[in-house]
Amino acid sequence: MQCLVLPLTTFFASTILSRPFDEIRFAYPFLQFPLPHFFSLLPRKFGKGKKSFRYLLSLEKSETLFPIPQAAKPLKSEGLLMEKEINIVNDGASGDDQTPEDFYDVDQRENDAKVAELNQRIEVLEREKKKLVDENEQIKDRIERLSAEIEGLKSEEGTLKERLKEMEKQVERAEEGNKVLESVAARALELETEVARLQHDLISTMNGADEANAEVERLRKSLGEKGANVTAMEEELEALKKAKAESEKKVRELERKVGVLEVKEIEEKSKKVRVEEEMRDRIEEKETEISSFKKTIMDLESVITKNGLELDRWIKEKLKVEELLKESEEKTKMVESKMVQLQKEVEEAHKVICGLKEKAVNALNGTAEELKSAFEGAEKELNLNWPIIAGSTGVVAAIAALAFVLYGRQR
After folding, report:
1. Distance between CA atoms of 329 and 345, rounded to whole angstroms?
2. Where are the annotated coiled coils located (predicted)?
3. Residue ranges of the chain with pLDDT lower than 50?
4. Residue 261: closest CA among 94, 138, 151
5. What is residue 200's predicted lDDT score, i.e. its pLDDT?
6. Which DSSP letter does residue 49 get?
7. Can you give the pTM of this predicted structure?
8. Is residue 89 helix, strand or coil?
């Protein structure tokens, strides 16, 4: 039994506890005592359950428990290794001794807890990797939308400047997305270091288990059921290794996708530069056209000013002609009234002529004196009407000449 002290204390100090150097330092003084005296130093009935070396270490650090080397010195000096015990004070409580099976149960429970914690961390890592894949898909969709908008900008001419501003904003958003990807890559590196640390912890636990395999072989008769649990833990460790390899593969795939996204971003920037150059050329062409249009507008304005002067002159002449037309209309009205009078006088002249003819016929039958008197009366009536006839004909000739002049100017 005394030969089991060194392997058991080394196994407990390296595999169960998270700080192996402190635990080994704590357990080292027990190596100087045989096995029964070793178990007599443990606390008895601390609360509801049995405690391990971690609890003893906490008591030692809180000065509730006397340090083991100080408790062991009197016994060394007196040579009492098997006969005496080191009294451990813990609120005056004492109980039964713990067996090696109890310590192995504590070791098994802590290993199970560590494996469960590792499984939880691996699940968290897988969820984060899935989230990264979703973010990459969103960024791909955003880049596809950007490329479609760039193709639309090529076909539109009127709204190119506004679209370019929108493209710059979207490119800035894409750059922000790249920054997010960089942060994601940094997070992936942190996760990789976390996985490496966990793997190191697993390796350390496996090394401790390998060192304890010899002792486990000796205790396998009494601990057969716990051996099956150890094989299950080894299978879980293999599964963890496979999961780690898959996570590394996913990280490499993410890095490759990030590289593809960077190449696409460079292509989008080059397309943007080409579009800006084309827009500059088109803007210069439009500016030259605008300058030519301005020159033509100035020429047209000069022509319009000249035509305006001529138009004013024509308007003045038109006003004069309209005044003349009004005067001529008044004169025509007067002439028409006079023509009506002339028609009446002509009718009267016809009547006179008819009367003269009758008188001539009668004169043929009468004397020469009567014929002479009749002719004199007719001549007097005709001499009175000739000035009116001449004036009316002159007015009609003036109206005809004025109408001819106006018609020629309008043509």
Report:
1. 24
2. 108-381
3. 1-8, 10-52, 60-98, 367-368, 371, 375, 382, 384
4. 138
5. 79
6. B
7. 0.21
8. coil
